Amino acid sequence: MDLPAAGPAARPRTIALTPGEPAGIGPDLCVALAFAPAPGARIVVVGDPEVLRARGHALGRPVCVREWQPGAPDTPLPPGTLEVAAVHAAAPVRPGRLDPANAGHVLETITRAVRGCQDGTFDALVTAPVHKGVINDAGLPFTGHTEMLAELTDTPQVVMMLVGGGLRVALATTHLPLAAVPAAITAPSLTRTLRILHDALRRDFGIACPRLLVSGLNPHAGEGGHLGREEIEVIGPVLEALRAEGFDIRGPLPADTLFNPDRLRDCDAVLAMYHDQGLPVLKYASFGAGVNVTLGLPIIRTSVDHGTALDLAGTGRAHDGSLREAVALAIELAGHRSA
Fold it and tell me: pLDDT category, 72, cuts 50, 70, 90?
């Protein structure tokens, strides 16, 4: 599966970057980005300037924080400089120490960044990881970035896809107990998922005729019904209907042999039926440099493929490879969408 290189952008893209949980490694990653900025883009951190300054000092990499001015001339920033759209934390931030008092601050950074994407201020959104538990501890209902973004943009269904290691792997279901997966794979839901994936590959990735591989749910893709009937009763008929519309889709295929080079060579994305069916392969191929992309939104959103890593915050041991890839992919997608 060949991933195209990003083409030259017609103009520098303005990318909103949310640091996520302030006690985690998100601020560390923002500081690292200040010293090696992404070419072809203007990165605006939507967060607390004081947290970023303090984290830079803790890391021995003091940063100059510049207030972001919408519409200001796009001039290169000196190394070590961050442009910041200020959203202040409610309580002091200590690396590695969660504080529910800052949960509202985290959600406000996301909301501000999304609104900026909706009104055209930003071309794309890149998110660093949040901590779901501490947000819920604060009494705020929150199931994840993806669900919040869907709600903020009035999007009825989104699709999670990870990109990395030469692969694109989307999921038919995401964070569900394994026992709940079969009931969640319905013909209407699977059809919508495949349409969203197909449309996103065309619009955002610039692939004129996407080629898709779809896994089965059961071992050996059901073994003709002996190991499960979801392939016969749900997955297969959905694929047949879409093929009749002109979709280039193969499957349902056994997941244990789906990710072999011969099959991947002639496809643009894989749809797995559940989280741990598709993502272990991708994360093995790209650990530390994978990117999470939310498909189906009216805005572009990419994210790192890791968590808050509280034990690494402020230590200088956090790796920024996934963030750099997420920024680079956001720039690429913004270029395709505006073409």
Answer: confident
Largest CA distance in the chain: 65
Asked whether residue 143 carries a pLDDT value surpassing 90, the answer given is no
Q: 334 Cβ partners below 8 Å, 6+ apart? A: 9, 13, 15, 123, 124, 300
Tell me if the pTM is above 0.90. Answer: yes
CATH topology of domain 159-294: Isopropylmalate Dehydrogenase (3.40.718)
Write out the H or E segment, with its range, that includes residue 269: strand 269-272
Beta pairing, strands 41-47 & 211-215 = unpaired
The most confident of 2-11, 71-80, 108-117, by mean pLDDT: 108-117
Cβ count near 217 (within 10 Å): 24
The reply to whether omega before 49 is within 30° of 0 (cis) is: no
CATH topology for 1-155+297-339 is Isopropylmalate Dehydrogenase (3.40.718)
Mapping DSSP to helix (H, G, I), strand (E, B) and coil, where does residue 80 land? Answer: coil
Q: Mean pLDDT across the stretch 295-304?
A: 97
| Burial status of residue 65 (CB atoms within 10 A of its CB: 0-12, 13-18, 19 or more) | buried
Residues contacting residue 300 through CB under 8 Å, at least 6 positions apart: 117, 123, 124, 125, 204, 330, 333, 334, 337
Could you tell me the pLDDT band of residue 196, with boundaries at 50, 70 and 90?
very high
* Cβ atoms within 10 Å of 174's Cβ, excluding its own: 15
């073994």: which residue's tokens? 223
Q: Cα dist. 108→15, 88, 281 in Å? A: 17, 9, 34
In the chain, where does the domain assigned CATH 3.40.718.10 lie?
Answer: 1-155+297-339, 159-294
